[in-house]
Amino acid sequence: MTVLRSVSYDQIEILKSIMTLCKIDRFCADVTYGNGGFYKDIEKPEHRFDLDGDLDGITQADSTALPLGGESISSLVFDPPFLTYVRAAREGNGNMVMAKRFAGYWRYDELESHYIGTIKEAHRVLKKKGIMVIKCQDIIHNHKMHCTHVNVINWAAGMFRLKDLFVLPAKHRMPSPNRKGVQKHARVFHSYFLVLERL
Ligand SMILES: C[S@@+](CC[C@H](N)C(=O)[O-])C[C@H]1O[C@@H](n2cnc3c(N)ncnc32)[C@H](O)[C@@H]1O
User: Which residues line ligand 1 (CB under 6 A)?
Assistant: First the structure.
């Protein structure tokens, strides 16, 4: 019997493990679909949403306000931006939703607001015991460690329980602010796939 492990260098392998463990044949929705990189070898979700209307094969929607009925789906994938101090996201009027590019946030509280808004929306559209998969990464912002994967679990408390946690080590150098001087924090070299079950 193949043992499914919590660490892999291959995000598709992690997604396939999650599907096997949660008995998911096909994800119902991906709310930050992007270029669909997750689905090169996996059937695409029925509902593919992204804020960026220029992407192919998606319905333009904000992950915090999905065009889905309450308790209407059984699984959902959320792979939001994780970087802060991304200037492009401040173009337009400085509001993330109105920005022309959606690769990141300026301040950590903008990230927090998007993540919490989407967790609440996932709680609304998912059926009881439905699965939300969140890909996230911890970051250093303003000289402070933001342990996003722990924050996500806390933000979801009362709505979801943590069912599984996978670690994806980076194959290549992860992006980081270009600072001079003495290194004060370990370079973050991995991201997480959190598997949350709706209460
Ligand atoms: C890390 S990328 C997703 C990559 C995707 N998993 C892939 O493999 O191609 C993050 C995506 O979130 C989208 N996004 C950012 N803010 C959003 C929002 N409020 N609602 C929906 N999508 C959003 C961006 O446009 C971007 O495509």
Answer: 31-32, 34-38, 50-52, 62-64, 79-81, 97, 102, 114
Residue-level pLDDT, tens digit, the chain, 199 residues:
889 999 999 999 999 999 999 999 999 999 999 999 999 999 999 999 999 988 999 999 999 999 999 999 999 999 999 888 776 545 544 454 444 456 788 888 999 999 999 999 999 999 999 999 999 999 988 888 999 999 999 999 999 999 999 999 998 766 665 566 788 888 889 999 999 999 9
| Whether 193 contacts 165, CB under 8 Å | yes
d(CA 64, CA 19): 24
Enumerate the β-bridge partners of residue 146.
Answer: 139
Cα distances (angstroms) measured from residue 199 to each of 33, 74, 76, 108: 25, 12, 15, 27
Q: Which atom of ligand 1 is nearest to the CA of 38?
A: 8
- How open is the CA angle 196-38-27, to the nearest 5 degrees? 50
Tell me the best of 14, 30, 39, 51 to mutate to test the pocket of ligand 1, counting ligand atoms within 8 Å of each CB and taking the most: 51
Ligand 1 atom with the smallest distance to the CA of 34 is 27
CA of residue 49 to ligand 1 center, whole Å: 9
The pair of three-digit structure tokens given for residue 28, joined into one six-digit string: 């119902």
